[in-house]
From TrEMBL:
It comes from the Bacteria. This is Uncharacterized lipoprotein YddW, UPF0748 family. PANTHER family: GLYCOSYL HYDROLASE DIGH (PTHR43405). Residues 93-397 form the Glycosyl hydrolase-like domain. InterPro entries: Divisome_Glycosyl_Hydrolase, GH, GHL10. Pfam families: GHL10 (PF02638). Residues 1-32 form the signal peptide. Keywords: Lipoprotein, Signal. SUPFAM superfamilies: (Trans)glycosidases.
């Protein structure tokens, strides 16, 4: 792969000016005319505020000062404790990546690998994400009405063993393994399902365990060789809903995720209409009055609403997310042209967002910022304007753009644009992890600049708005080390902790501590740091629950 220079300073200057110009146009509300629901609707105009620079410096807190015992106090006492509802800095941003198993795109590298090699490859991917401060992974567990986990409903996936219906040998449950390893690294694990695809052309021989042979009445064949379950059929809807229910009940997952495949792309059937005459004629015979397009959309809408309710009924902390095609309809907003998912995929993703059926929507905005008919910031602004129920809108970003000449920085620009436009609830999901893993300069830029610090998953107050109680914090000075311990009245309500700290004359900083990585509720900070022997002046710890709520912040001012 051709390697490109990522961090040249002249480009960074031009990039920064470019980002500010984009944010001036789109942050909060646009000063230009941007359509929301229909071309005649225009948003209110709000002037964008550019934040003022502060005078605080950044101290390297990783280098303890070289001090003699005489330079240290015998003990550090708490001068004052101040209860505040909000921590001193916002450390939340959703950072996720898709792990595709269909066609062995991301994992495993090929079907039929030994268990140990599969697990080793999984660890490599999870370590990459953890080392680059991601906090979620979206893992494909149902690529073609099959299972990358132990299931009594659907058969083992071809992409695991090379034979659909055959379990891994030696036996293990890949999903359990991925969940445990993701949680160890402080990452959420969302399971990604294709709701209707029955067979992919890379899926090997169609075995007796496939739904194509077990339930041929449910499926239709497309011209490109794929098989698709008919979304109008009740037994199809029941089957996928049962799969979702089973996953939520039996596995410690953090989210259910559907992608953009509802009714299939027409190109899969040679441009011809989806072959659902049988179910359409049955609907009309029963007195159905909807047009064929509206009927198809209603089939999908009803199923999405059903899944949304089902997930919350089983576990109220599990998110339901969908990553639809990035354009709802051409002309929304006015400058946008391209594929019409509403008319072609019969997916009314705007409705799902407007109704609040999804906890997060991740429109696949895989285009460039300067690609006018499908401009990334224009589309992101439109989707956020449609977020009337204040759910999460976290765009899908195409990391593969770093491979295109002249667009080596496009990924990073889009991350910055997203942070500006979604300042109150930032986040993104990256597609094409291979592109990042194969580009060392881009990988370094991401780790050292854009994802330099870890982040919490933003809270979802419509799911749960009750924060945990604040922990009780104790401190003890041991040489130049401040030993910090804490207690909490309900540790079962806490999934991670955030240690906030501030050295004199510097900005607040933080560390995210995950329960799975703590044997005891203890950590340490250097009391004096750097050549100037800067003193630690303030600390505080918050408890964070499963849905991202933080406890009140108790600011502890050290003497």
């Amino acid at each position: 792969m051709r390697q490109h220079s990522i961090m040249k300073r002249p480009y960074l200057l031009r990039s920064s000016l470019f980002i500010w110009s984009v944010l001036l146009l789109f942050s909060c509300k646009s000063q230009q005319t941007v359509q929301t629901s229909a071309p005649e609707n225009q948003p209110e105009v709000v002037e964008t505020q550019i934040p003022e620079a502060d005078n605080e410096t950044e101290v390297d807190t990783t280098i303890p000062a070289e001090v003699s015992p005489e330079e240290l106090p015998k003990e550090v006492e708490v001068e004052e404790e101040i209860i505040k509802s909000e921590p001193p800095i916002d450390v939340a941003e959703f950072r996720a990546a898709w792990i595709a198993t269909v066609a062995n795109i991301n994992w495993p590298s090929r079907s039929g690998l030994p268990t140990a090699q599969q697990q080793s490859e999984a660890i490599k991917l999870l370590d990459f994400l953890a080392n680059h401060n991601y906090n979620a992974v979206i893992f494909q567990v149902r690529p073609q009405a099959d299972a990358l986990y132990q299931s009594d409903i659907e058969s083992w996936s071809y992409y695991i063993t090379g034979q659909q219906g055959k379990a891994p040998q030696p036996f293990y449950d890949p999903l359990t393994f991925w969940i445990n390893e993701a949680h160890k690294r402080g990452m959420e694990l969302h399971v990604w399902l294709n709701p209707y695809r029955a067979y992919h052309t890379t899926g090997g021989e169609i075995s007796e365990a496939s739904v194509v042979k077990e339930n041929p009445e449910m499926v239709v064949k497309l011209q490109n060789g794929m098989y698709w379950m008919d979304p109008a059929r009740k037994d199809v809807q029941d089957r996928t809903a049962t799969v979702v229910e089973d996953l939520v009940k039996r596995y410690d997952i953090d989210g259910i995720h559907f992608d953009d495949y509802f009714y299939p792309y027409d190109s899969y059937n040679g441009g011809k209409d989806f072959p659902d005459d049988q179910s359409w004629n049955a609907y009309k015979a029963e007195g159905g009055k909807l047009s064929r397009g509206d009927w198809r959309r209603k089939n999908v809408d009803d199923f999405i609403e059903r899944v949304a309710k089902l997930v919350k009924k089983e576990k109220d902390f599990v998110k339901f997310g969908i990553s639809p095609f990035g354009i709802w309809r051409p002309g929304y907003p006015q400058s946008i042209a391209g594929y019409d998912q509403y008319e072609k995929l019969y997916a009314d993703a705007k409705k799902w967002l407007n109704e609040g059926w999804v906890d997060y929507l991740t429109p696949q905005l895989y285009w460039k910022t300067d690609q006018t008919p499908q401009s990334f910031p224009v589309l992101l602004n439109w989707w956020e304007e449609e977020n009337t129920k204040n759910r999460h809108v976290w765009p899908g970003i195409n990391a593969g753009l770093i491979e295109e000449e002249g667009y080596e920085n496009e990924l990073f620009n889009q991350i910055l644009i997203t942070r500006g436009m979604l300042a109150k609830d930032p986040g993104a999901v990256l597609w094409n992890l291979k592109a990042l893993m194969n580009n060392k300069e881009a990988e370094k830029a991401l780790a050292e600049n854009y994802f330099r610090k870890p982040a919490l998953v933003p809270p979802s107050p419509w799911m749960d708005n009750k924060a945990p109680k604040s922990p009780e914090v104790l401190t003890n000075l041991d040489g130049n080390t401040l030993r910090i311990s804490w207690q909490h009245p309900d540790e079962n309500d806490v999934f991670r902790w955030v240690l906030y700290f501030q050295y004199e004359g510097s900005k607040w900083d933080f560390k995210i501590l995950n329960n799975d990585q703590l044997s005891e509720l203890k950590t340490t900070l250097s009391y004096l740091v750097g050549e100037k022997k800067v003193k630690l002046s303030k600390i505080g710890i918050t408890a964070v629950d499963r849905t991202g709520n933080q406890s009140d912040f108790k600011e502890i001012i050290l003497e």
